[in-house]
Design a protein that fits this description.
The chain has about 375 residues and is mainly β. The chain has one domain. The protein is built from one helix and 14 strands; from the N terminus they run αββββββββββββββ. The protein has a ten-stranded antiparallel β-barrel. Strands 4-5 form a two-stranded antiparallel sheet. A hairpin with a 6-residue loop joins strand 2 and strand 3. The protein starts with a helix and ends with a strand.
């Protein structure tokens, strides 16, 4: 467990070092270059540094694990598929740096987004049966206790991570077409994305535990003649990933709604983006099932039980390892509000990004699944060099 925590901490440290390093590089270049001197006739910052986060709802489809050995899972219990779902939410860290040269409508930017999430579910349901008692020779009360019970046990551990990196160059094409102080920037560039997910699922069930009864003349009653039950087990491990890169196109706009930049201004922001990613999709899965049948019985002239059992192993399934080159379309959009004061900006809104057919969510065979992130975001930006 400590190794896993250290590994996650290292990943977080690397991400923040990357953002900090890019920020420092941009600032150093800005200070050292004469081309980046402050514009005396412009009130717009040349460099914007943005940090933020997003609470993302995840679209991460995967084939549910339903092995035949679990077909007899008691209907009085919740289905295992309810607990097999991967994480539903993640908190993403975002960062961006944009630079607009003096006396130019061009904007150059680098942005990054990192997210990860995990879930750990364990659900146990059982019947807790009572034993039975009957009277033997000489009025002796003999107890037969339940040696098992009907139950369903589901353990599901899963995790996912996603990293998205954009390099873009854009031009402000607004030119007053939407009104004074309205910006409308069209960007072209390159987008890199990688997604990874892991699953570890364990299912256990006894669908049919019960007492067997036999009429005993000496007791003049039906007594226990044993207990019959099954022990069904199944497990799945899966690792899935996608790594891709490709051209991107986006449109970002902003229009003032109220106020002014000197005293505080509220602006409406919007954006649309599209990309085509070319990359590699991988999946590796392994699952196995075992069923044990217990025919427990209690001879009428003994006070102990014998529990023989038979084991049935389902046909062994080999590990499934798949790798495939794929083309993944990507579309997204955002809408929000910003409060701008001097060279600082605070933004809130809603953002969505969808990658179609990015993941192989199948178990025994390939199953193309979409990957998506959508939810509210917040960010703070600082402008340098006005």
């Amino acid at each position: 467990m400590s190794e896993l925590i250290n590994k996650n901490d290292n990943r977080a440290t690397i991400r923040w070092k990357l953002l900090t390093g890019v920020s420092a590089l941009a600032l150093a270049a800005y200070v050292s270059s004469n081309d980046f001197a402050y514009a005396e006739d412009s009130d717009q910052p040349q460099i914007w540094i943005e940090l933020g986060g997003q609470l993302s709802q995840l679209q991460d489809g995967q084939e549910t694990f339903s092995p035949p050995v679990m077909d007899s899972r008691p209907s009085i219990f919740s289905p295992s598929q309810k607990f097999e779902k991967p994480p539903s939410y993640s908190f993403d860290e975002t960062g961006a740096i944009s630079f607009q040269p003096e006396h130019s409508d061009w904007v150059f930017s680098v942005s990054a987004r990192f997210g990860r999430s995990a879930s750990n579910k364990h659900n146990v349901e059982q019947t807790n049966p009572k034993g039975i008692a009957w009277t033997g020779y000489g009025g002796t009360v003999i107890h037969n206790y339940a040696k098992a019970q009907r139950f369903a046990d589901t353990t599901s551990r899963s995790s996912e991570r996603h990293d998205i990196l954009d390099f873009q160059a854009g031009k402000d094409v607004g030119l007053g077409m939407f009104g004074r102080d309205v910006t409308s920037v069209v960007n072209v560039g390159v987008r890199f994305a990688q997604f990874e997910s892991k699953s570890n699922i364990s299912l256990k069930s006894d669908p049919d535990w019960h007492f067997n009864y036999k009429y005993a003349t000496f007791a003049k009653a039906y007594i226990s003649n044993g207990q019959v039950f099954h022990s069904n087990l199944a497990s799945l491990t899966a690792q899935r990933s996608f790594h891709g890169i490709g051209p991107s196109l986006s449109w970002k706009g902003s229009a003032p709604v109220a106020g002014n930049t000197q005293d505080g201004e509220i602006a409406l922001d919007w954006g649309l983006n599209a990309a085509v990613l070319f990359g590699r999709q991988r999946a590796r899965t392994h699952h196995q099932s075992t069923a044990k049948f217990f025919a427990a019985y209690l001879p009428v002239n003994k006070y102990y039980s014998v529990v023989p059992h038979t084991t049935g192993r389902f046909p062994a399934t080999p590990d499934h390892t798949r790798s495939r080159n794929v083309t993944v379309p990507n579309v997204g959009g955002s809408v929000g509000l910003s409060y701008i004061y001097a060279n600082a900006k605070l933004s809130f809104g809603y953002k969505a990004d969808f990658f179609f057919g990015a993941m192989d969510g199948g178990i025994d065979t390939r199953k193309s699944e979409n990957r998506g992130f959508y939810g509210p975001y917040a960010s703070i930006s600082i402008g340098l060099g006005d």
